[in-house]
Amino acid sequence: MPYCCQCGLKVGNSDVYCASCGARQPASKPVADYMQGISSRTASLLCYIPILGWIVAIVVLASARFRDDPRVRFNAFQGLYLFVAWLIVDWVLGPLFGFPHWMGPPFYKVFPALMKAAIFGAWIFMMVKTSQDELYKLPILGDLAAKSVSEQR
């Protein structure tokens, strides 16, 4: 509900004048919803695009259209947590295993690459599951996503 531009009291959405002070209210433009033409399944699917899905996940979580859709919000949170896992592997485990002084040469470069391949595979797997309209919880990240959705109700 909007507020009066002069006195700050609540006014109706269609009020031209404030009932309290009589000030003329500026005409409000309807807010465009950019997610209007996107289905729930498509929005969920876009959250799992490798590397770039985190942007869509944040837009989906911030949009009013999917605020009451726990399935889409679950997929957005899970896609966001997959990206965070990618960042942890890339920024923490990669440099950590980049120092060969405490690990043997055959293992220290392979482990971060295997972890990145596993996360990339999880993105593709989740895109397939979401395109088939199945709700699939990844082992650790799915529990975090379910908890995040339940805390926002």
Task: Describe the protein's architecture and organization.
It is a single chain. The two termini are 21 Å apart. With 153 residues, the chain is an all-alpha fold. The protein has helices at 40-46, 53-62, 70-96, 105-108, 110-131, 141-151. It is elongated and about 80 Å long.
Most strands sheet: none
Rounded to an integer in angstroms, the radius of gyration calculated over CA atoms is: 23 Å
Percent of residues in helical segments?
40-55%
How would you sum up the global shape? elongated
Question: What is the succession of H and E elements?
Answer: HHHHHH
Strand content bin: under 5%
- Ends apart, CA distance between termini: 21 Å
Total number of beta strands = 0
Mean of pLDDT:
89
* Low-confidence sequence ranges: none
Individual helix count: 6
Alpha-beta classification: mainly alpha
Can I get a quick summary?
This protein is mainly α. The protein has helices spanning 40-46, 53-62, 70-96, 105-108, 110-131, 141-151. The relative contact order is 0.11.
What brief labels describe this structure?
mainly alpha, 6 helices, 53% helix, single chain, 153 residues
Which helices and strands appear, and what pairs or packs with what?
Layout: H1 40-46, H2 53-62, H3 70-96, H4 105-108, H5 110-131, H6 141-151
Helix pairs in contact: 1-3, 1-5, 2-3, 3-5, 3-6
